[in-house]
Amino acid sequence: MNLPIYFDYSATTPVDPRVAEQMIQYLTQYFGNPASRSHQFGWDSEKAVEKARENVAALINANPKEIVWTSGATESNNLAIKGAAHFYQKKGKHIITSMTEHKAVLDTCRQLEREGFDITYLNPQSNGLIDLKELEAAVRDDTILVSIMHVNNEIGVITDIAAIGEMTRSHKVLFHVDAAQSAGKVPIDLATMKVDLMSFSAHKIYGPKGIGALYVRRKPRVRLEAQIHGGGHERGMRSGTLATHQIVGMGEAFRIAKEEMTTENQRIGKLRDKLLNALQDIEEMYINGDEKQRIAGNLNISFNFIEGESLMMALKDLAVSSGSACTSASLEPSYVLKAIGRNDELAHSSLRFTLGRFTTEEEVDYAIPLIRSNIEKLRDLSPLWEMFKEGIDLNSIQWDSH
Amino acid sequence: MAYSEKVLDHYEKPRNVGNLDKDDQSVGTGMVGAPACGDVMRLQIKVGDNGVIEDAKFKTYGCGSAIASSSLLTEWVKGKTLEEASAIKNTEIAEELALPPVKIHCSVLAESAVKSAIEDYNKKQKV
Asked: To the nearest whole angstrom, how far is the Cα of B18 from the nearest Cα of chain A?
């Protein structure tokens, strides 16, 4: 077992060796530009790109023609939201999203607000999920788009996008889903789910960084205004020479995911549950996000009266992340945890463990006593823990906020 | 973010963790910060008849730099007069621990913890 142990699979994943092997030949041997129609080099690359497109489409039961290559989920979200907003703005200028979306969605919406669009940011319930009735109530005559993520990157909760899709379709509103954290982890069937636009990333599912895709529905047809102009690649929706090796890597990653998702989820779920069960009896620990409706690899917990960054420092053999302000430049704790109603203290005290394909039972077994002993150590250091143990209500104290 | 060796040393082997009797007339207690902000420091000093700080204890809820700042502080104030202790500047703490700019507020908090403990002690002496 190598240290440190990687428990941050929601941040990114290592490239699967099977993926890397496929990619390498498209850097050195088959280096042609897939847009070169006049020779064998171009034809070979184009064939590889189209094969990858089929693999990506197959995982989500879509038509390969509905897949547009991008540089990653951030670009896909930008293209979907700005592209749809700009194209359909004559119909209306209202967009609905949620407060717990990824920054790639939230900041894109902020930009559209500056351009004169009206955005509704829905507050999730305390389990991290959006209430469908509340979402439907927010739909207006001038609503053109709803953008809700499939799986939340911090707390791992799974949104029922099939139900939202039925609702948006009945109101003739477009539905975009950020699926960066769900593809390869949760079944997606776009033949039955009424999703119009869906964003994907390769590096979250053992593919390379720097490549992603946007699903753009053909029936009923969804139109987008391009955000990047150039050679008219990807049917004019996204210009730029296709990165063959990256695309091949994403295709292989999606092919493997389709094959192994079911068994992999069972294995990872067992390891996650083992970790959770071993920590469950710790006093004043809170699980963030719905306990059942979440992906197999995610465990997000707050250990009250301990600050998250100091716990991560103690757990330097474990690569995890925290919602603590001290880990961000902004000095604000996680906006996701705050949106689900966690107070600042619990948001500061949160740790996110995300397990994945290469996590072993040995690693989980190593982590458990390390976490437990350091929680004890840091609570011994914590004046808040001491006060809690003495029965003092921390809310009754006049703190000097700085 | 990489931590300086001194921060790691204090974090891994914090000095003078614990409590002094807060009701003791010779003990001053300072508690600064707020849970909502992610750091709370409690510093206690025990002052001898000669006005010299004999003992100091701390407990801190906060990041590694906050813990290290308060640990270092307990070492520094021991053996100092109240006047000398109140002259400790946050910049000295930040410099000693090589704190990066985003962690300067930890040293600011430590400086106000000493001042607050001394204030508490002085208040007790007037009664």
From this structure: 8
